[in-house]
Amino acid sequence: MKTLSAGATLMLLAATAAAGPMTVDLKSTLLHNRTAYIPPQCYTKTEDDTGAVHNPCFTCHVRSRAPHYINDDDLQTAYSFPEPALENPWTNLLVDRHAAVAQVSDTEILDYIRQGNYLDENGRNLLAERLADLPPDWDVDGNGTWDGFTPDVTYNFDRDGFDIGSDGQITGWRAFAYYPLNGAFWPTNGATDDVMIRLPEAYRQAEDGSESRTVYKVNLAITEALIRRAPVPIEPTDERALGVDLDKDGTLGQALNIAFDWAPKEGRTMSYVGRARLLQEAGEAPLSAGLYPLGTEFLHTVRYIDVDDATGQIRMAARLKELRYMRKTRWQTYFDRKEGALAESKERVDFPDRIALFFGSSEEGVTNGTGWRLQGFIEDATGDLRPQSFEETVFCMGCHGGIGANDDDTFAFPRKLPATLGHGGWWHWSQRGLYDIPEMIRTDGAPEYAHYLAQNGAGDELRGNMEVISRYLTETGELTPAPVAAFRADVSQLLYPSPARALALNKAYREIVREQSFVKGRDATVAVQTNVHRSVTQDQPTGITRPVKAWYQ
Question: What is the pLDDT of residues 434-456, one digit of tens each?
């Protein structure tokens, strides 16, 4: 296989950028990168020039917990790629954007990121309006109507984290706070984000079909208990009105928590409340530990990083980089999921060069094979939101369903902040940021973020975030005690970048937007990333010999 040198690659990339934005065909299902589901971080050089080994891989590749049966901790030890993925397709990691960043003033980039592209200054849903007046090149099936998801969150959250619509009623979306996943999702590595959950109407209604905030709160708490596999505190709730023994104390009284008690073979099960309980009894609303209700939706926005002019504090920007959506459209039993995972594992051994196949379109979304449909919107060259192409959506698939660290194909909700931090952990980051949030403790007792720094010797997979390295690690890769102790009580000190770094990353990412080169990678990087393989050999050892366990093990 003939490959370009790094210098020739950079010249080619520069010529491509100078030619103008790449053309994005929203109707095509052709993949230029046939393995777009394998993310850039998987090409990390885990051994450095001194022979030291770094392990960022355990964030994703670990032994799972049932009913997620993908045990892929072996991927910490080897680059087990199919043949089409051996050459690194994420060439945006090799671009030097220093000159482009230097040409953009701080004022210019702040003006850009503070202009909303989802909601305008009056709260109008700009994206919904564009979808209602559908551009022909967005209309994949040619029927003149947008048949995919139309984003409807208003970003008007009350003290319980519920999104309130223009009619004064809840839209069903509820924001929750969570511990950002290690590595790329730390804001210091390029973006702020948020996540909201919405359960179907039946889970928001009393048994007579009327809207009930109490019923919805309880059903969300039950869902949280099922996903955490642990009890969840709730505000004092009258079990007699709901007809369910929520705390499993044997009586219908006042409950202060949802007990997790799931052992069907021993006759111990759990129940939703309200109309969902009636549907559950009729077999139409299945309930299982570790699984979300059928019809559950998640909305995830990825944003630029804003900096408060007065305080210098980091906050979410008005402008979205992406709006990501997923909905559970098909129920899979434990047997279904285990059978699918075993079949996938067998295929990996029998046909190591066979790539994953995905179905769908930019309009209807793409299915992940385990019951979820994913769809997204991303900036066009001018900064307005457009649907993601089929290939840009396939990019999301490697992380949602195909790795061991998932819980029912998700990350954020299992990492939801505990109720002890206020409002049950239900709030939006615009209401309260990461400031004064204590570090999460792993099941084995280790502080999670310090553990990641120690295992990886860096604050990002590619070891390009020198700000984190210089603050928290010594020249030999050991943790620096005092700074590490400080973020134990306030994770913002680690997770938020300095204002200067935040603005530089904003500027770098906007260059990718202008190029529309997302299929080459969407990481906000200023410098050429040196700790990334241009190519690997199949099953090439990573240098990691003992896989690290997941945070929940």
Answer: 999 999 999 999 999 999 999 99
Q: Give me the pLDDT at residue 394, please.
A: 95
Percentage of the chain modeled with pLDDT above 90: 90
Q: What CA–CA distance (Å, rounded) separates 54 from 50?
A: 11
CA distances to 157, 215, 321, 373 from 165, rounded to whole Å, are 9, 19, 23, 25
Does the pLDDT of residue 4 top 70, yes or no?
no
Whether 458 and 465 have beta carbons less than 8 Å apart is answered as yes
pLDDT for the residue 19: 55
d(CA 356, CA 359): 10
Chain length of the chain? 553
Query: What would the DSSP string read from start to end of 291-314?
Result: -PPTT-EEEEEEEEEEE-TTT--E
Q: What is the CB neighbour count within 10 angstroms for residue 482? A: 7
Alpha carbons 108 and 483: distance in angstroms, whole number? 33
- Rounded to two decimals, the pTM is 0.94
Q: Which residue pairs, CB below 8 angstroms and at least 24 apart, start in 440-448? A: 440/179, 440/415, 440/551, 442/551, 442/552, 443/551, 443/552, 443/553, 444/549, 444/553, 447/488, 448/179, 448/182, 448/551
Tokens read off for 487: 């973020």
Confidence of residue 401 (pLDDT cuts 50, 70, 90): confident
Domain ranges of the chain: 6-120+178-194+317-541, 200-294
Task: Number of helices (H) and strands (E) in the chain: give both, helices first.
Answer: 14, 13
Report the C-alpha gap between 25 and 140 in whole angstroms: 10
How many CA atoms lie within 13 Å of 407's alpha carbon, on the beta-carbon side? 23
What is the Rg, in whole angstroms, of the alpha carbon atoms belonging to the chain? 23
Mean of all residue pLDDT scores within the chain: 94
CA angle centred on 349, ends 343 and 354, rounded to 5°: 80
CA 197, 202, 203, 206 dihedral sign is positive
Nearest-CA neighbor of 451 among 420, 423, 479, 491? Answer: 479
Helix (H, G, I), strand (E, B) or coil at 257: strand
Residue 449, token pair as written in the block: 């973020």
Extended strands (E) in 443-546: 540-541
What the block records as the tokens of 436 is 């004064």
Spatial neighbors of 131 by CB under 8 A, at least 6 apart, are 138, 146, 150
pLDDT higher than threshold 70 for residue 117:
yes
Distance of CA 220 to the CA centre of its chain: 20
Question: For position 398, what pLDDT does the model report?
Answer: 84
Question: First and final CA of the chain: distance in angstroms?
Answer: 42
Q: Fill in the amino acid letter for 316.
A: M
